[in-house]
Amino acid sequence: MKKFLLITAAVILAIIALSSVGHMIGMAISLFIVYFSYKQFMATNSTVGKIIWALIGLIGFSGLLGSLPALAGVAAIYILYTGYKNWDRTKETPVVKSEDPFTGFDREWAKLKNQK
Predict the structure, then answer these.
(1) What is the number of structural domains in the chain?
(2) Residues 37-65: pLDDT tens digits?
(3) Which of 7, 60, 92, 102 is buried deepest, with most CB atoms within 10 A?
(4) 29 Cβ contact list (under 8 Å, min separation 6)
(5) What is each CA distance from 24 to 58, 60, 71, 75, in whole angstroms?
(6) What is the pLDDT of residues 93-108, one digit of tens each?
(7) What are the alphabetically sorted keywords of the record (predicted)?
C-alpha cells in the first residue's frame, strides 16, 4: 500500500512538473535578462545608458514575477529527485558490538582462565 501511494504521488508530481515546463523556460529567460541587464547597468557610465538598462531589468523582473508558478514545478522536480534517490533505501540500524565485560561473563571468564 505504501508503494502504491508513493507511485501515485510521483505521478501527480510528474504532472505538476510537466505542466510547469513553460513557466520554467520563461523564468530562465527572465533570469537571464535580469542578470544581463544588471551586468550592463554596472558597466555603463552614462546616465541614459543606466536608465535604459534599469528599464530592461524591470521588464525582465516583471517577467520573472509572471512566471512564479515555475517554483511549483521546480519543487516537484526536487521532490521527485529525492524520492528517486531514496526509493530502495531501507532503514538499517547498524549493529554495534558491545564491549561491556558484564554482558559476556562466560567469554570473559574463559579469557581470564586462558591467560594464566
Answers:
(1) 1
(2) 999 999 999 999 999 999 999 999 999 99
(3) 60
(4) 63
(5) 19, 14, 8, 11
(6) 565 566 665 667 777 7
(7) Cell projection, Cilium, Flagellum, Membrane, Transmembrane, Transmembrane helix
